[in-house]
């Protein structure tokens, strides 16, 4: 098990471990880390490796994830950089029990603080953009929480790049608290975020926390064109594309040559994407053994990265490739327009 390094959370000065422990499955009987004892063992393993960054949400396990996490970190609360989320509905019968508006925010943050047994949150995430609430209302309401001391830093999850950019710009122009991080799906099989979201994050100095870094189980070594498809996997019953199989094959080949697990290599590839934006994988676990495997951090060689990049490369898309070709020959384009 390798001791983790630390990274700054975006433009803030707070230090977070290079892996974030996702606790979505804490408190899910029969599905995940069901008991407090199991969760406690995983949390201790994570802390021993230098981990200090935790991710949960008010909707995970119906709020039970927050309760379990809060109880376990209570003896040393200030050691942890604790993040939770709001925005998804907690009561389908109430039209205001979800959404990103001020009323939902006030209700959600008070409930999360109570379940977590703390008087402040290190990082508070907008779970997903609701499409109705004005950006100005969200930015202003979140800034009020920071000024109240209940929240230290802000993040936003699963939201288009143009909306995040506008929110950050509004915050900067009005002297309000900007977002420090975004949370997005990012893995060898989900690289579309590299087109808009990652360049935006780098330009605005936002940390990127990547959920589903193992591609929903596809990058665990259980899948490949030469392997029988597991009947109990998360992808059971769902279609797997030829591209996904090719990526799994390339990953398995690198892992076999390294004598490492496919999961370790997949996480190593993601941690190597710092040139695109500051990237922190969120490691979600169902048992302690998975965490122990994921904590064996690897640094891949350039040739290994090249193999994985080639297998998972994105299809060219407008306007990036179009603009890139012309900017590469800028003088010729200028001369053409002068004629």
UniProtKB/TrEMBL annotation:
Gene3D superfamilies registered for this protein in UniProt: NADP-dependent oxidoreductase domain
Kindly name one Pfam family recorded for this protein.
Aldo_ket_red
SUPFAM superfamilies assigned to the protein according to its UniProt record, in alphabetical order: NAD(P)-linked oxidoreductase (SSF51430)
A GO molecular function held by the record: oxidoreductase activity
Whether Oxidoreductase counts among this entry's keywords is: yes
Q: Which InterPro entries match?
A: AKR_Detox_Biosynth (IPR050523), NAD(P)_OxRdtase_dom_sf (IPR036812), NADP_OxRdtase_dom (IPR023210)
* Any GO CC annotation of this UniProt entry: cytosol
Q: Which domain of life is it from?
A: Bacteria
Keywords assigned by UniProt? Oxidoreductase
Q: Which PANTHER family does its entry note?
A: NAD(P)-LINKED OXIDOREDUCTASE SUPERFAMILY PROTEIN, NADH-SPECIFIC METHYLGLYOXAL REDUCTASE-RELATED
Q: What is this protein called?
A: Aldo/keto reductase
Q: Which organism is it from?
A: Amycolatopsis albispora
Taxonomic lineage is: Bacteria, Bacillati, Actinomycetota, Actinomycetes, Pseudonocardiales
